[in-house]
Amino acid sequence: MKQLTSYEGLHCANCGATMQGEFCHQCGQSIHSVLKPMHHMVEETVETVLHIDGRIVHTLPPLLLKPGFLTLEYFAGRRVRYIAPFRLMFVLCLLSFFVFHLAIDQVADKIPANGHPLVSVDSRAIETAASPAEVRKALQDELDGLQRARDTGVLPPNVLEQARVGEQELRQAANRRLAALGAAPMPVASLASPPASTVVKASSDTKPRDAARKAFENESKSVRIAWLPDVANARLTALGRQFQKNWHAFKHGDPAASAEAKQRMINGVFGALPPTMFVLIPAFAILLKLFYVFRRRLYMEHLIVALHSHAFMFLSLLLITLVGMLSTWLRPHAAWTGYALGWLQAALILWIPAYLLIMQKRIYRQGWPMTLLKFWFVGWCYVWLLMFALLVALVLGVAH
User: Where do the coiled-coil regions begin and end (predicted)?
Assistant: First the structure.
């Protein structure tokens, strides 16, 4: 009674209604002022964070280990202790793509930016040779390797320059080793210019590429599809030109421009993936609605199933990527961890289809034969939708 009578005579500052508790029964505004001391704000922040953490603890383990549990709880009305389906899917989607982006960047950094093989020299055999004859043999082996790379005729001018500088370094290392062994040094060949045949071959190879690029530019000046409005055609034309520009910079540009184009395309792909997946989720819910039309469930129920299914897949992608990165980091220090984490990755990958099958069985409550048949058809249709979505994201990313 004291709690009820403590609000007598108080009125809501927003709508003027008589207060009967801490919140107005008409507009919902709290009786408490937002102008509080700093320590009260810190206390509320900590309480909010701990409350969210509590929901995470109740949500993530069953999402990963109990197929269909969260969806059935949501249908039964027990929702307060769990994170909402869309928020759960949204956060896991962004987090998984962010970590996967980091992993892709680590792999992409090891690939030559313009796709051409890089020339590297290794003077360790020369520096560890025990006699002048071994020094000359090791030098000749390295020079033969450089010459084979030149003979391919695909090296751009900047890589040819690297080969010439590398040859000079090898000869200098050989002379230092010969001097240490008390033998006469060899003459260092002049590297002021590359062989004439190499220059002719390189220049002759660039002409077809330039001609092909100009022909492609002429063909892709504009996109004109009769049944599309002018705005859509203009947008497609701009995307096509930017696609061509990025790809040409990646394949034929100088190292700096090629690396920049590569990173721009990767960032574009990962920027386009989340919106593409958000479009894919309602499409997956439509598939469920079509295949379970006689179960008399609302589309919103199928959408919740789709949200929880994708949240699980994003969580699995996140864990698989983290395990892979951890394996790459630990393998040089302890090889056995690489094998153990590899088995864990395989288990996570195999758990994805098994989880989705069990989830479909528990939610829609059909026999195993019909569940397996519908699971196969839904999965087949979804794979094609996913491939189309990834293709769209790839094109939009390269044209970024």
Answer: none
Q: Which two tokens stand for residue 288?
A: 């469920």
SS3 30: strand
Same domain, 95 and 234: yes
Same domain, 358 and 239: yes
Is residue 321 domain-shared with residue 260, that is, in the same domain?
yes
**Which residues, in sequence order, are CB contacts of 345 under 8 Å at separation 6+?**
320, 323, 324, 327
Question: Does residue 283 lie in a domain region?
Answer: yes
Tell me which amino acid residue 121 is.
V
Contacts of 44 (CB under 8 A, 6+ apart): none
Look up the domain containing 288 and give its range: 85-112+228-398
* pLDDT at residue 200, as a whole number: 44
pTM over 0.85: no
In 3D, which of 142, 384, 158 has the Cα closest to residue 255?
158
* Tens digits of residue pLDDT in 119-152: 566 778 888 888 888 888 888 888 887 777 666 5
Q: Say if residue 20 is in the same domain as residue 97.
A: no
Q: Report the number of distinct structural domains present in the chain.
A: 3
Identify the burial level of 42 via C-beta atoms within 10 angstroms of its C-beta, where 0-12 means exposed, 13-18 middle and 19 or more buried.
Answer: exposed
Inter-CA distances, 325 with 100, 330, 342, Å: 10, 9, 11
Q: Indicate if 251 and 104 belong to the same structural domain.
A: yes
Would you say residue 392 lies in a domain?
Answer: yes
